[in-house]
Amino acid sequence: MSRHAQKLRDHDINPCVAETDATTKCLNENNYKKDMCTAYFLKYKNCRKFWHAIMMQRRRNGVKPEMPSADERKKILESVGKPY
């Protein structure tokens, strides 16, 4: 697996690994008919938007690292409910 692919699979770097996997699974099961997986695409897009907003807020506040770790993200999701 390439270094880039490993980064995308790292839960500390990519907060939307589960949504990515669900989207890929849907595409595989439906012969890559994108219209059959619209809900999965939307869920992934909302996940990315949510965590991007968190990352930008942390950047503005000077918090490092900008992307919360997997444990921190779990606590954030528990406190706000799953917004996507």
TrEMBL record:
<comment type="similarity">
    <text>Belongs to the CHCHD7 family.</text>
</comment>
<protein>
    <recommendedName>
        <fullName>Coiled-coil-helix-coiled-coil-helix domain-containing protein 7</fullName>
    </recommendedName>
</protein>
<dbReference type="InterPro" id="IPR051040">
    <property type="entry name" value="COX23"/>
</dbReference>
<dbReference type="InterPro" id="IPR009069">
    <property type="entry name" value="Cys_alpha_HP_mot_SF"/>
</dbReference>
<dbReference type="GO" id="GO:0033108">
    <property type="term" value="P:mitochondrial respiratory chain complex assembly"/>
</dbReference>
<keyword id="KW-1015">Disulfide bond</keyword>
<dbReference type="GO" id="GO:0005758">
    <property type="term" value="C:mitochondrial intermembrane space"/>
</dbReference>
<keyword id="KW-0496">Mitochondrion</keyword>
<feature type="region of interest" description="Disordered">
    <location>
        <begin position="62"/>
        <end position="84"/>
    </location>
</feature>
